[in-house]
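Much of what follows relies on a compact textual record of a protein's fold. Each token is a code from a learned vocabulary of local backbone shapes. The record below shows the convention in full.
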Amino acid sequence: MPINIPAHLPAKQILESENIFVMEDQRAFHQDIRPLNIVILNLMPQKIKTETQLLRLLGNSPLQVHFTFLIPSTHTPKNTSQQHLNDFYTTFEQIRDKKFDGMIITGAPIEHLPYDHVSYWEELKEIMDWSKEHVTSTFHICWGAQAGLYHHYGIDKKMLPKKLFGVFEHDLLEKNERLVRGFDEVYYVPHSRHTDISIEDIKKVPGLKLLSVSQEAGVCLIASDDEKQVFLTGHPEYDTTTLLEEYERDLKKEVPISPPKHYLKEIDGKQVPVNRWKSHATLLFMNWLNYYVYQETPYDWK
């Protein structure tokens, strides 16, 4: 797709250097195509990195997509400049009367907190309720997936004895599901989390489809029967070096951490990260954008 983003968004130059098709607002305005309107609730601390990662995954389709970046008004980000937030982000109050074709709710490094201890939990619940009537399909990632499963279906997270950290092999359970069309029967996803969702708890809930699992990492991909909700416990949007950066960060902070599993490979005598998830990550987001959003959303929301 031509990704329709502002000319001065930091991600634009990075994506253009990677030969990702981006389009400035002025050029997009002159095309006689209704763009898909996607709102991204970015809860990650390093917002520019997350913007780039998500736009990269959504940048390989013939569809034109317009993005709105959203942050909670009840939380002040500490790792992103106020100028960047002012330039590119909006709040829920400013969009609550609008309709969107798709929504992405990112993860957040707050798994250790009970949901009702999260500073913006009440606002997030309101946004998730709003999405059921104002968004065609919502894609929840990592903590965002756990929060969505808890809020919509009452499925709580469980603490793990130690951090699940690495790149794990996953088995496809529903080969005919549109969301995983074109997937290999075995594929890889990075995970970085301290909590988990029980497979048994998912299976007990009518209206949910368990699409893939890992023998090591557990539940991975879940979708509602009506395709309005997608829950992904891993981080396929991660860059090749993201897990390594997290590992080195925790080492510097003297946080107990083991090296990420199934991730580093010895090349020329050095341990280097190897990306084994990029193609399936791109396919997953393309399938969501095509089958769950584009094929289902009305041309005119009115």
Q: What stands out?
A: Confidence is low (pLDDT under 50) at residues 28-32. The longest helix spans residues 278-294. The chain is about 30% helix and 25% strand.
